Amino acid sequence: MIELAGIGKTFRGRTDVVALTGIDLTVAAGEFVTFIGPSGCGKSTLLRVVADLTDPTAGTVTVNGKTARQARLDQDYGIAFQQSGLMDWRTVARNVELPLELRGWDRRRRRDRALELLELVGLAEFAGSRPAELSGGMQQRVAIARALATDPKLLLMDEPFGALDEMTRERLQAELTRIARESGTTVAFVTHSIPEAVYLSDRVVVMSARPGRIAAVVDVGLGERTDDTREAPEFFARVTEVREALRGRTVVRAEER
Amino acid sequence: MNTRAARIGLPVLAGVLFLLGWELLVVANDIKPYLLPKPSAIWAQLTRNIDDILTTSARTGTNALVGLVVGAVAGILAALVASRFRVVDSLLVPLAAAVNAMPIIALAPIFNTMFSTTSAVPRRLVVTLVVFFPLFVNALRGLRQVEPIHRELLDSYAAGGWTFARKVRVPGALPFVFTGLRLAASLAVIAAVVAEYFGGLQNGLGTRITSAASNTAYPRAWAYVAAACALGLVFYLAATALERLATPWRTSR
Predict the structure, then answer these.
(1) Which of chain B's ends, N or C, has fewer CB atoms near its CB within 10 Å?
(2) Domain boundaries, chain A
(3) Where's the ABC transporter domain (chain A) (predicted)?
(4) Looking at beta carbons, which residues of chain A come within 8 Å of B147?
(5) B49-247 has which fold?
């Protein structure tokens, strides 16, 4: 679904900043991959490169078998950011409808789809509300519904739960894994929370800063997520593994000893 | 409920007290009417001339309205074009600043000689020019003020420039436009009244004020001034009402 080959990104300025260098990664269709690393490791930049919101200065990006630009023009992905980016002047439902509007769906069809999505994120009764009337967590759920509106094969998420409290965060994580599993969506997810990365992903891509590159890739392999996942010993083992990778060390797994 | 009553009641009370104090001040100090007439004398003139006040208000109001609409539309369109094309922006902004630095009212006598003296065009033109600038500046500020996240979002939808303008720039700019419109609504009435001071048609509030003043009929002049105040207030309130209608997301809270 995503193929990154030799991606580099240098911000030119008085002193050039190498944000990314030598990124090679393949994300399979249906896979949930999380990018984690210290601030300045270029994880958000990498996501923007995949989204074709910024150009890499080296390497090639292939998304859904096309160039990143073509994938963007074809609206192959849905995207959500740390801020919800809802438009104050639209109702909640009309915010979710926005990408459908731009695709030329007729009013009735997009209204039905928006309500279906709001149902999915548990906000059906707020369809007619203004974003300002919603809490931060609810706004973020609306943004996720909007990202899912066109039923994209690929979902790009840049710390969408970053500004939320822990309770809301965990609930949305559970919802997201359920949605991704049920719809078979490929997800590329940026976070700076280790437990979040482990809980959500099939694979965690650990990045290091200056220059931003991939330090390690941790296979999570926890199977279907349930309420108990967060308390399972394997969960903690993977958390440790990611933490050690962030510190530049590798952990030998118990079953491999 | 209490706050609503207070919101309307307090200004009314303040107004009544102000008029009462004015009346007392004039009576107690025996101030001559050419310096400051009593509110009761102004009121008497107001009621006696009410028919003429209404017709002249309507004429001046029409001038103000026509100028306001034309100036506002022109200002908004200019801002739209300037926000869309950088070249136009760099051409138009200094020009608009220069126009604004000019005392536009001072153009009224010049416009009067440009057009026939029986034409309402000169004063409408003055209003148009006066209105243009606050609308242009505010609309442009609003149009330029785009949240980066909305930019990225619309880019991710592969939306073109005009789609972006329609879905993000324009609705996002509406609150700014209405700030400009509220400002311009009062200015339009002021400009329409004052433009009449410089000759031309003798049929509006401004001409009635000058003719009453030159006939030393000061309470009558003040009665027409009061009418001009009321007209300005009507325009301002209409602009505010329009704002509430057009940007419900800002006023519903």
Answers:
(1) N
(2) 2-76+152-249, 86-151
(3) 2-234
(4) 85
(5) MetI-like fold (1.10.3720)
